[in-house]
């Protein structure tokens, strides 16, 4: 009879995931590795520049946004490195410079030594001490705004919040 055929078709569709009902549980139990990453545009990042008391302080290096609030005495309002926060300051970190012209993501023309220094500070200071809260849109998106398929979130193998206390 036509009835049984219809039921089998529906079952088959469900097995193949054609029915939304079958697809939902998969989304719910996605492994944490697939957790959405927070994307920061430049104006969003600029809000976390340490000027508001009680607001988190964020700084981006190599497109990775770190929460440096626990280093308030370095990064907060009036602190020595406050110029670095609320933006991607990759170049400034590489050159150990607070010159406004260097407070940019742009690493064009840096020396081998500056690039090596950048990686050392990125890994041994920022990734080791401060939690990653997201990525700059430049790191996650292509120039045309489409998702960058090569994007890989950073892991924090050495991260140990205990050092802060």
UniProtKB/TrEMBL annotation:
GO molecular function terms noted in the UniProt entry: metal ion binding
- UniProt keyword list: Endoplasmic reticulum, Heme, Iron, Metal-binding, Signal
**Which segments constitute the Cytochrome b5 heme-binding domain?**
40-137
Q: Which InterPro entries does UniProt cross-reference here?
A: Cyt_B5-like_heme/steroid-bd, Cyt_B5-like_heme/steroid_sf, MAPR/NEUFC/NENF-like
Query: What Pfam families does the database record attribute to this sequence?
Result: Cyt-b5
Q: Where in the cell is it found?
A: Endoplasmic reticulum
Q: What is its main location?
A: endoplasmic reticulum
User: GO CC terms for this protein?
Assistant: endoplasmic reticulum; membrane
Q: What is this protein called?
A: NENF protein
What family does the entry list?
Belongs to the cytochrome b5 family. MAPR subfamily.
